[in-house]
Structure formats: C-alpha cells, structure tokens
Amino acid sequence: GEDVEQSLFLSVREGDSSVINCTYTDSSSTYLYWYKQEPGAGLQLLTYIFSNMDMKQDQRLTVLLNKKDKHLSLRIADTQTGDSAIYFCAEKNSSASKIIFGSGTRLSIRP
Amino acid sequence: DTEVTQTPKHLVMGMTNKKSLKCEQHMGHRAMYWYKQKAKKPPELMFVYSYEKLSINESVPSRFSPECPNSSLLNLHLHALQPEDSALYLCASSQEGQYQETQYFGPGTRLLVL
Q1: Is A30 on the interface with B (CB under 8 A)?
Q2: Which of B57, B103, B110 to mutate to test the interface with A (most CBs of A within 10 A)?
C-alpha cells in the first residue's frame, strides 16, 4: 500500500535554512504536498508540486522532487521563529480523493 | 478567499450526549471531507462528500454520522462516543473531489469525550 515517511524532528538555528525530507512509495502519485500545522491549529497548505516537475520555488520555500528515488524535500530559507510547527508531507493517490500523509516533522528553532 | 470555517473550536461531551460539528466553505467547492487527527499523528480520512453525496466512508463507526445539507455545509453528528474518540476533527474542501485537486483545511474542532 501507499506509505509516506518523514523524520520526526528537526532543530535549526534561527536564520539558517531548514530542509525537511520525505519519501513515498506510490509510484502513481501525481500531486505531492507540504502542509504546516501550528500548535492547536488546523492544517495550512504551504505548497504543492506536480509529479512532472522537479522543483518549485515560492518566496522562502523551495520544493525539490526526485521522482526516481521517490524523494521530496522542503527547504525553508532564513528560518524564523514563526516557522516552528509540524510539517506534513502528503501525496495524492492518482485514482482516489484520498491524501496519504506522512507522520509529520516537528521543526524547532533555536536562537 | 480560501477559508474553511469550523464550529465549535472546542467541544467537551459525555458518552451519552449527542452533538454536532459544523463546517462551512464559500469557495464554490463541491467536495468536502472529514478527517480525524489524534495527538502527534497525521490526519486520517473519515468521509468524503462529492456533489452532496457520500462518496467515501473509511469504515467509520456508526456513532459518527456525516451530513451534507448543501454544497457549502458539512456536518458531523456525534452520538454515544467513546473517550478514545477524543481528537482534533478537521474539515477540508476541494473543487470537485478529483485526485489532482488541492484540499483546503479548516482550523479544526478539538473534541474531548469524558
């Protein structure tokens, strides 16, 4: 079945870049997403990438997709304290409405 | 406007109570979703409505009963819940429920069952 995996924790210094990694197993994934969840809040769609792209940039966010290795990453440039949250990688099954989420990576920022 | 609203924000209920969670969107989306999220876990899909018809039920117990009165509203009726049903309940919507669409999430209702 489909599976999405992420590391559970990442700690970075304020002002540095954060790179959150994700691997997935479904080769028919067509859309891949990054969601942000702040404590006590719902999910906020940060960005998404089509499987026929290998990179997408949106202000401080850069998404890289290696389709051959089924590896997705999210780079946050100039990480700020407001970036502290859980980041979920997710993929959309090509035959259904269901999104498969990873377990989430908790990003903490140190001064 | 990409907002999905949910009420209430917080809900505490006993195991014999009946309550409802509400979700609303005004983006003209025709697909709406209920997810359940336990602490430190990713969201799990419960139900999908497409054009006001239930299209996916992920084997959810019957004590959860969804309802889609119109294309902008989605309810989740709760009855005889168990303490293990305590979780964050998230609503989402997308354009038509096709696989390539982005889902937009509401802030969630945090439910505590005593």
Answers
A1: yes
A2: B103
pLDDT tier at A42, thresholds 50, 70, 90: confident
Among candidates B100, B99, B89, which has minimal Cα distance to B4?
Answer: B89
Tokens 């006001």 correspond to: B52
Please write the tens of the pLDDT for every residue from A46-70. 998 888 889 999 999 999 999 899 9
For chain A, percent of residues with pLDDT exceeding 90? 64
Contacting residues for A63 by C-beta, under 8 A, at least 6 apart: A32, A34, A47, A48, A49, A55, A56, A57, A72, A73, A74, A75
Give contacts of A43 with chain B, Cβ < 8 Å: 43, 90, 92, 105
Rounded to a whole number of angstroms, the distance from the CA of A24 to the nearest CA of chain B is: 15
CB atoms A97 and B106 under 8 Å: no
Q: How far apart are CA A89 and CA A72, in angstroms?
A: 8
Q: For residue B108, what are its two tokens?
A: 């969630």
The counts of H helices and E strands in chain A are: 0, 11
Residue B34: closest C-alpha in chain A = A98
Higher pLDDT, B78 or A51: B78
**Residue A95's pLDDT is what?**
66
